[in-house]
Specification:
This protein is of the alpha+beta class. Helices cover about 20% and strands about 25% of the residues. The radius of gyration is 18 Å and the shape is globular.
């Protein structure tokens, strides 16, 4: 690795550690800054509950495990982004430095949080994200039904799966799972600054709008924050931008500490 790239990696890691000094009680907490290809390849099981806060050092188009570059539109040059693959399924996502909240969580199979039902398994993670958004005055709901969206196998944010979060008539948080005999990985992402928008053109698809009002209420969890000390009522909505990235991560991790 070049000296310049190594320095960038160290600088970003120091920045995150300085601004989010958060003691974890039930989780092993790891902040990781690396190239997207490295971050997206994590599959090894952990000995206990573990959470990774991921910060990519480069821009990349991350494809699902079953996708190939053939799914891209013909005019894609590949010059702007590297193309990498993750080890979990689902559609493509775009990642760049400071362009998303990217948090991966591992739950061992002997942990009380472990759930064998693939539909129920990620719901608790979605609830934490929804509460995080509610504390930022962003109203959101957790979807608990089966996968919907005909283009979801192409673009992650073109569909909606169990545990994923809806806000502002669109998918706000994506969650993919990788499961084996040792436990479950939850790979989660909350895009900032509309960082996934260009994917619609890249794949030649139309943006998916989600109408929660038309959905079956039995598959949505829409709860406002009930903590009177941190209630979002009457407060100004916090934009989901790079400027607020550390704030969003900090709130999510504080909630995770209490699980």
């Amino acid at each position: 690795m070049s000296r310049e790239k190594s320095g960038n990696r160290l600088f970003l890691l120091k920045t995150v550690l300085e601004y989010i000094p958060l003691p974890m009680t039930n989780f092993r907490l790891i902040y990781e800054s690396d190239y997207a290809e490295v971050l997206a390849a994590r599959v090894a099981p952990m000995p206990k509950r573990t959470v990774f806060v991921c910060n990519p050092l480069d821009s990349a188009l991350v494809l699902g495990s079953s996708q190939s570059t053939e799914v891209l539109s013909a005019d894609f040059s590949g010059e702007r982004f590297r193309i990498v693959k993750r080890r979990s399924g689902g559609g493509a996502v775009a990642v760049s430095p400071l362009a998303q909240v990217w948090i991966d969580i591992f739950i061992p199979c002997d942990d009380p949080l472990y759930e064998s039902d693939i539909l129920k398994s990620p719901v608790w993670v979605g609830k934490l994200y929804a509460k995080t958004l509610n504390l930022l005055a962003v109203e959101s709901c957790v979807y608990t039904g089966r996968l919907i969206g005909e283009d979801s196998r192409l673009i992650c944010f073109a569909g909606l799966g169990p545990g994923e979060v809806v806000a502002d008539d669109g998918k706000a948080v994506g969650i993919s799972q990788r499961r084996n005999k040792d436990g479950t990985w939850f790979y989660t992402m909350l895009p900032l600054d509309a960082s996934q928008e260009y994917l619609w053109d890249l794949f030649g698809k139309k943006k998916l709008n989600i109408d929660c009002g038309a959905m079956d209420k039995n598959i949505l969890i829409c709860e406002s924050n009930k903590d009177p000390d941190r209630n979002s009522g009457g407060r100004e909505k916090t934009p989901l931008t790079a400027k607020n990235k550390l704030k969003i991560e900090k709130i999510f991790l504080e909630l995770l500490c209490a699980v």
